[in-house]
């Protein structure tokens, strides 16, 4: 088996889906099918059981996977070390994040990155909401996973990693909590909790707009310094907050509910980095982030 065919086999053994395997390896599904058929002819037996709904490894396929994985890992590590040396992927990479879901992605990427590039350390840290871009602008970070777009002097937007629908965080006994969906026009009837810090206008318009799309004013609610204050303010019935839909999995607690919006733009999360240029470690790390985010879609 050729190395590329081995990579296709191992990817399909993990994904158990021809389409996802093709997307992950950036090839066509027919290329995946051709490689598997060629491997089965070479070996002389079926490696996968295929139906219209499922793909499963045969016992023969399981043994081949278990035998190939350690050798393939050693080959990949050897290639990665050569790439790291050639590109200068050494030193320390410093990555920041602003939300728990960005943190999950950053830490997953950091673990893989350390295995690939042994000469490059990775530090991951939270970026406080009261100073959202200070560490990056001061040079304390090489890149940041956060909401995009950001228009700040000296900073540039990198690739968008994923797009998230929005929801309204409301008190569980609020009338809006009984709805399946809310509209941006509903914001005219509820006080919207606002950050007390100097947040860029573009982010404010996304998270705490002052007017609805039809021009109705949005009542200002109480302000906060740290995000942990927001669920408590909402549960107390003092205001509402616009959040990502997946916030319900990270910030749910008694007294609050999350109601998806039926209109309005998504919240886009991606990479922010210095506009002047990126280091080889930062470029390699973002390539890894992009790959991991695509697998989770």
From TrEMBL:
Top-level lineage group: Bacteria
UniProtKB keywords: DNA-binding, Transcription, Transcription regulation
Residue ranges constituting the HTH lysR-type domain according to the UniProt record: 1-58
Stated family: Belongs to the LysR transcriptional regulatory family.
InterPro entries: LysR_HTH_N (IPR000847), LysR_subst-bd (IPR005119), WH-like_DNA-bd_sf (IPR036388), WH_DNA-bd_sf (IPR036390)
Family annotation (PROSITE patterns): HTH_LYSR
Protein name in UniProt: LysR family transcriptional regulator
PANTHER family membership: HCA OPERON TRANSCRIPTIONAL ACTIVATOR HCAR (PTHR30346:SF0), TRANSCRIPTIONAL DUAL REGULATOR HCAR-RELATED (PTHR30346)
Organism in which the protein naturally occurs: Actinomadura gamaensis
């Amino acid at each position: 088996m050729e190395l590329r065919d081995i990579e296709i086999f191992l990817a399909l053994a993990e994904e158990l889906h021809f389409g996802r395997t093709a997307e992950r390896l950036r090839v066509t599904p027919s290329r995946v099918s051709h490689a598997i058929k060629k491997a089965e002819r070479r070996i002389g037996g079926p490696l996968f059981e295929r139906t219209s709904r499922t793909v499963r490894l045969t016992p023969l396929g399981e043994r081949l996977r278990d035998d190939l994985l350690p050798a393939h890992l050693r080959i990949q590590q050897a290639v990665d070390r050569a790439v790291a040396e050639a590109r200068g992927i050494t030193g320390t990479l410093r990555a920041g994040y602003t939300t728990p879901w960005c943190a999950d992605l950053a830490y997953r990427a950091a673990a893989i990155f350390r295995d690939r590039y042994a000469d490059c350390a990775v530090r991951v840290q939270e970026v406080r909401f009261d100073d959202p871009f200070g560490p990056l602008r001061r040079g304390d970070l090489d890149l940041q996973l956060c909401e995009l777009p950001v228009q700040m002097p000296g900073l540039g937007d990198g690739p968008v990693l994923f797009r998230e629908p929005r929801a309204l965080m409301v008190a569980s006994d609020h009338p809006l909590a009984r709805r399946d969906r809310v509209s941006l026009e509903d914001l005219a009837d509820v006080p919207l909790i606002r950050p007390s810090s100097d947040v860029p206008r573009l982010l404010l318009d996304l998270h705490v707009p002052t007017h609805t799309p039809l021009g109705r004013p949005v009542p200002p609610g109480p302000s906060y310094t740290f995000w942990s204050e927001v669920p408590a303010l909402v549960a107390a019935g003092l205001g509402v907050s616009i959040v990502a839909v997946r916030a319900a999995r990270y910030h749910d607690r008694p007294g609050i509910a999350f109601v998806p919006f039926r209109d309005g733009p998504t919240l886009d999360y991606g990479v922010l980095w210095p506009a002047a240029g990126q280091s080889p470690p930062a470029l390699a790390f973002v390539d890894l982030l992009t790959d991991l985010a695509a697998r989770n879609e």
